[in-house]
Amino acid sequence: MDTLNVELGNRSYPILIDAGLIGRADVLERHVPARDVLIVSNTRVAPLYLAALAAGLGAGRRLVEVILPDGEAHKTLANVARVLDVLVANRFGRDCSLVALGGGVVGDLAGFAAACYQRGVAFVQVPTTLLAQVDAAVGGKTGVNHPGGKNLIGAFHQPAAVLSDIATLATLPPRERSAGFAEVIKYGLICDAEFFAWLEAHLPQLLSGDPAALVHAVRRSCEIKAGVVGRDEREQGERALLNLGHTFGHALESATGYREWLHGEAVAAGLVMAAEMSRACGLLSSADAERVRSLVARAGLPTCIPGVTPGAALEHMRIDKKIKGGRIRLVLLRGIGAACLTADYPEGALRDTLQACCGPERGLT
Amino acid sequence: MDTLNVELGNRSYPILIDAGLIGRADVLERHVPARDVLIVSNTRVAPLYLAALAAGLGAGRRLVEVILPDGEAHKTLANVARVLDVLVANRFGRDCSLVALGGGVVGDLAGFAAACYQRGVAFVQVPTTLLAQVDAAVGGKTGVNHPGGKNLIGAFHQPAAVLSDIATLATLPPRERSAGFAEVIKYGLICDAEFFAWLEAHLPQLLSGDPAALVHAVRRSCEIKAGVVGRDEREQGERALLNLGHTFGHALESATGYREWLHGEAVAAGLVMAAEMSRACGLLSSADAERVRSLVARAGLPTCIPGVTPGAALEHMRIDKKIKGGRIRLVLLRGIGAACLTADYPEGALRDTLQACCGPERGLT
C-alpha cells in the first residue's frame, strides 16, 4: 500500500493508495474511529461500493446514508442543507464522522457539510474517480457552486484521511477517466516536465486502465499536490498555481450551467486556453503550446467547449475567485513544467485567446 | 479610546471600545480597507446607524446593504444564502469586506457568510447591543440556527476588527440591555469573583446606563473573553467554560422556537440552572447559588423560562454541540469565579435541576 502524508502540523493526514481499500476493515477502523458515521454518496457510486464500505466499517457503529443525485448540477447549498438536516435529525454529535464516497462533487459537498456542522466535524475522503483521487479529495478545499459561479461558497477543511481505492477506476466510464487526466496533465505542466513527458509516453497504457501506470499517475499527482498544499494551505501564493486551466475552465462550466461538461473536460479546454494565452503573451513557444493541445486531444478531452461565446466566457471569468483589484489573475506557462501567476498581461491577449478558443463556430468543428 | 487585542498570531485583531466609533472616518479607513463593502444590518438597527456608518466609510467605495428582519428567528441558512446571493450578484471579489452592524444575530450570520464566501473574506464587527459587544462579536464563532438546535451550522472565522460603539447602548431597549448583562455576569462567574462582586455593587448604575460603568463592564468582559480565545481559539479546552449557562440556555431557546425569549434571557435562566445543578452536585454552596439567582433577578432577567417541560429541555440538550460519547458535558461552578467542565455528575442531579427550574407550573409563578 502506497502512503503519502500531507504535512499540515496538527491537521496532517495520510493519503492511502491501493486496490481494495474500500472493504478493508483494518484500514477503516484506523482512519474512521467515529461511532456515528454519515456516508455521503450518489446514485451512481452507491450501488457499486456502498455495501462493501458499510461491511468494512463493521457492526457496532451507527451508519446513516445520504445518497445524492449524480452530477455537478447537484453540488448546491440546498444539498448541503439536506446533509445537515440528516445529521441533526440523527442527533449526531461533534464526535461523528462524515465519509465521502464518490467523485469530486460528493467530496466537495460532504467536506463542506462537515466543515459547517457544529463548526467542523471529521470527514474522510473515499474518492472513486480519477479526478477526485488526484485532485479534489486532497488539500481541504470544500464547497458548492452558486448559480453565479463555481465553488463560490465553501471552506478550507482538511480531511482526516484520503483512502484512494484504485480498483474503483476499473468501473469508471472512459469519459470520466479521461476527465481525470486533465488534472494529471496539469501537474506535469505546473512543475514536472519529466512527468509530462512520461504521460506523453504512457498515455495508451493509462487510457486502457493499466493498474501499474494508473498507480504511478495517481501517486505522482498526489505527491505534487500534497507538497504544494503543505507549503501553502490557504492559497496565499504557490497553491494558486494549481488553478492552471481552472479560471478558464470554471467560466466554461459556469457558462454552460454545469450540465453539459464534466469538470475535467472544462479544465482540459482551460489548459489548452492557458497554453494558447501563454503563447500569445510570448511566454510559451508554439511547439510547447502544441504539445499541450496534442496531449489533451489524445487523452480524449476537448480542446474547446462548444457553445460558449467569448463574451459569455469573460463575464463568467469576472466572478471567479481569482479576481484581485478588478484584474483577472491567470496562471500561465513559461514552459512545460513552469507555471506562474500573473495579472500582468495585455488585455488584447485575453480577448484574442477567448476569440480563438470559444464560440459556437469553432466549437462545432 | 480603549483598545484590546485578541492574540491569535496572524489572525490577531483589535477590539476598539469608545462612544461614536460608528461615524469615525479615520477608524473605518484603518480597519475597513476594502473598496467593496457589504453592510449587513437589520430593520431595527439600520434606521439608527446605517447612515452614519456609510458616511464614515466615505465616498470612493462600493457600498451594498443587506437589511434582514430583526430577531433570532431569522438567523437561518436561508438568510446566509441571501447574503451570498447579493455578494455574487454584485460581483464582489475575495478582497471585499463584510461589515456586521447590529447585535449577535447580525454578527453571527454575516460572519458565517464571510467565512463561506469564496472560502473566506474579511469582515468587521460593529456590535450595537451590549450582548454582542461583550460576547458575540468577539472570538470568531459564527453561524446560524437549525430548527433542530441553536448554532448547529457555522464556522470559526475571526473578524478583522471589532468596533464597539458604546453610544449605541443608549438606544438599547431596557430588555435588551438586561439581556446583555447575562453574559457579563457569566464572565464574573467563570473566573473573576471580584468582577462579580463589582457587578453586584454597581448594578443600579449599569441598569440606568451610566457610561463609565458600562465601559468598565464591556472592557472587563472583552478582556476575559479575549484572553480565553487567545489561549484556546477552537474550544479544545478552556474556551468551553464560556458556555456556562449556554447548554441549558440553548435548550430553552430551542424548545421555545427562538421566538419568545432573547438569547441573553435564556442564558440568564441557564446560569441559574447551572448554579442550581452545581449546588445539587455538592460543588457550590446554597449561599453562592442564591447570589447567582439574586443578581440575575435584580438585573431584570428571568430565573426560569416558562412553558418548557423538563422532558423537552432534556431532548433539546441532547442535540447541543457539547455532547461527547453520548454524555452531555456541562459547565458547572465550584464557586463564584471558578467554573469547570464535566460530564461526571449524577444523572439524577440533572433531572432534579430540570424538574426544579422548568415546567409551566413554576414558569407561571
Features:
homodimer, 365 residues, alpha/beta, Rossmann fold, Dehydroquinate synthase-like, alpha domain, 2 domains, 7-stranded mixed beta sheet, two-stranded antiparallel sheet, 14 helices, disordered C terminus
Description:
2 copies of one chain form a homodimer. The termini of chain A are far apart. Chain A is globular, with a radius of gyration of 20 Å. The first copy, chain A, has 14 helices and 13 strands. Chain A has 365 residues and is an alpha/beta fold. Chain A is 47% helix and 19% strand. Chain A has 2 domains: 2-170, Rossmann fold, CATH 3.40.50.1970; 174-363, Dehydroquinate synthase-like, alpha domain, CATH 1.20.1090. The A-B interface holds A 77, 81, 84-85, 88-89, 91, 93-95, 115-120, 141, 143, 146-149, 151-156, 318-319, 321, 323-326 and B 77, 81, 84-85, 88-89, 91, 93-95, 115-120, 141, 143, 146-149, 151-156, 318-319, 321-326.
Strand order of the largest sheet of chain A: 1-2-9-6-5-3-4
Structural domain count of chain A? 2
Helical content class of chain A: 40-55%
The ordered string of helix (H) and strand (E) elements of chain A is EEHEHEHEHEHEEEHHHHHHHEEEEHH
The general outline of chain A is globular
Low-confidence stretches of chain A: 361-365
Which pair of chains forms the biggest interface, and how many residues does each contribute? A-B, 35 and 36 residues
Oligomeric state of the chains in view: homodimer
Mean residue pLDDT of chain A = 93
